């Protein structure tokens, strides 16, 4: 496909058509039955986008927007949240003796549905806001929605950024761009297969037997999972962005070394950027505009924002609690925006290197502890995890794999990303001497072959 794609250079429509077919084959390879959902979502928003400008400043434009919202959020609700609400409602009513006979659907969650529905929603909302103009070329639009590198786990690309790239001729791929793309892909596979998957084996053991391990292992287990999910998801993003470059596309940066952050607000500004900015632009700003900028309304908007971010990840109370905790930890940033004295105080906290280091370590630990709710299968398990860690588990030093991972895998990886944080991505080593570059190339390839965990499940965010 790649060779055929570049043999069609200068024939944009044919390149887009090839990408569209290839993307549908790629998605259908997982389960062809859900291709209809992808097509239907794309078709509805393509039609809404074309029709809406004819009715600007009329009630019909708002009706068209509601059609887009109903279809996309409706699909999300049916496949991702319906069973959750049915079970919760049934349990609540049965507790007071009210019969409830509505059954669950028990359907498979389509891979990537949370990503491509948000991508198409941003298109129709931006047209409604008159921020972009709709496309009249259905191949361009369908290819934009289904673009295979980022279809199943992001980044969630806005139409204002990615769609114009389908509407213009792709420049000839240069050796420098191809080399940079391959470097980023290589680093993505290293983070996924060597870092995330190996740590994941240990995390599964700790969370699977949290009543039988030491308190220090439980403490490190939460932090290890935070590193695992970061390495897993950012690894996918690196692979997606690198593949996009090979086809002449520039996808947005989705992570900016979030594990080295001074506070939770800074962490969220660097974590899954395409999702957090989506919620900020399409949920938080409208809420803040509707309810005002006072302290109470701002705090409530922040809590709603993070509860929805948590709920976006899955239909489970653990995700809602995870979002709520992060919302509470985000409150100082909201306070900073509305209180100049608080801003001055917080700036003083960041003014010394020692305090900065302490805050980075504290944020690192906070992120690990909150991620326990993200990893636990239910609220009872999450609470039990903390209860055992604080009250019952012995505080004995762990041995073996945990210490080996920390000193030979995790700390070197974090140090590397900290050093590379100023570059476009964390394996942007074009400025290194040639002998050092090739040392890294061979080193990462050997590490993947020798230490890569080839038997692990797919990327974690495929389930969202």
Question: Gap between N and C termini, in Å?
Answer: 28 Å
Count of distinct strands: 0
What is the H/E order?
HHHHHHHHHHHHHHHHHH
Structural class of the secondary elements? Answer: mainly alpha
Radius of gyration computed on alpha carbons: 23 Å
Profile the largest sheet: none
Residue-averaged pLDDT: 89
Helix content: over 70%
Overall 3D shape: globular
Instruction: Return residue spans where pLDDT drops below 50 for at least 5 consecutive residues.
Output: none
Oligomer: single chain
Q: What is the total domain count?
A: 2
Strand content: under 5%
Number of helices: 18
How does this structure look, described?
The protein is an all-alpha fold and 464 residues long. 71% of the residues lie in helices and 0% in strands. Helix 8 runs parallel beside helix 18 and helix 13 runs antiparallel to helix 15 (353-375). It is globular. The chain has helices at residues 2-7, 12-31, 35-51, 59-94, 113-128, 138-146, 159-166, 175-208, 215-246, 264-270, 273-291, 295-313, 317-338, 340-349, 353-375, 379-392, 401-419, 434-451. The model has no long low-confidence stretch (mean pLDDT 89). It folds into two domains: 2-166, no CATH class; 176-262 and 350-463, no CATH class. It is built from 18 helices and no strands.
């Amino acid at each position: 496909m790649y060779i055929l794609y570049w043999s069609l250079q200068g024939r944009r429509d044919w390149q887009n058509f090839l990408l569209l077919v290839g993307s549908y084959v790629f998605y259908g390879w997982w389960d062809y039955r859900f291709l209809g959902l992808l097509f239907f979502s794309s078709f509805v928003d393509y039609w809404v986008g074309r029709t809406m400008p004819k009715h600007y400043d009329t009630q019909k434009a708002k009706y068209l927007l509601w059609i887009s919202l109903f279809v996309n959020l409706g699909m999300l609700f049916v496949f991702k949240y319906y069973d959750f609400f049915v079970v919760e409602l049934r349990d609540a009513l049965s507790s007071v003796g009210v019969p409830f006979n509505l059954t669950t659907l028990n359907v498979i969650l389509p891979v990537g549905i949370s990503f491509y529905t948000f991508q198409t929603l941003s298109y129709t909302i931006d047209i409604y806001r008159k921020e972009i103009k709709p496309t009249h070329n259905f191949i361009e639009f369908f290819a934009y929605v289904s673009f295979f590198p980022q279809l199943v786990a992001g980044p969630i690309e806005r139409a204002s950024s990615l769609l114009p790239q389908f509407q213009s001729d792709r420049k000839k791929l240069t050796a420098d761009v191809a080399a940079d793309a391959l470097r980023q892909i290589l680093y993505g596979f290293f983070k996924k297969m060597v870092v995330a998957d190996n740590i994941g084996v240990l995390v599964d053991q700790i969370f699977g037997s949290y009543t039988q391990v030491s308190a220090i292992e439980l403490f490190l287990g939460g932090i290890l999972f935070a590193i695992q999910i970061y390495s897993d998801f950012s690894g996918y993003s690196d692979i997606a962005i690198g593949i996009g470059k090979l086809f002449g596309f520039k996808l947005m940066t989705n992570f900016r070394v979030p594990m080295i952050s001074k506070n939770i607000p800074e962490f969220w500004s660097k974590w899954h950027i395409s999702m957090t900015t989506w919620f900020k632009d399409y949920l938080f700003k409208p809420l803040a505009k509707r309810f005002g900028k006072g302290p109470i309304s701002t705090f409530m908007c922040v809590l709603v924002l993070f509860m929805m971010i948590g709920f976006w990840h899955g239909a489970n109370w653990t995700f809602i609690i995870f979002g709520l905790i992060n919302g509470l930890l985000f409150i100082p940033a909201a306070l900073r925006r509305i209180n100049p004295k608080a801003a001055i105080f917080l700036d003083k906290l960041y003014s010394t290197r020692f305090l900065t280091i302490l805050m980075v370590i504290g944020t690192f630990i906070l992120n690990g502890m909150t991620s326990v709710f993200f990893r636990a299968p239910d609220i009872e398990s999450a609470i039990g995890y903390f209860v055992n860690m604080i009250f019952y588990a012995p505080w004995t030093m762990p041995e073996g794999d945990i210490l080996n991972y920390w000193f030979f895998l995790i700390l070197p990886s974090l140090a590397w990303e900290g050093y590379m944080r100023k570059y476009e991505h964390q394996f942007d080593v074009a400025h290194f001497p040639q002998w050092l570059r090739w040392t890294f190339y061979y080193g990462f390839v050997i590490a993947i072959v020798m230490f890569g965990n080839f038997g692990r499940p797919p990327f974690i965010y495929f389930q969202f």
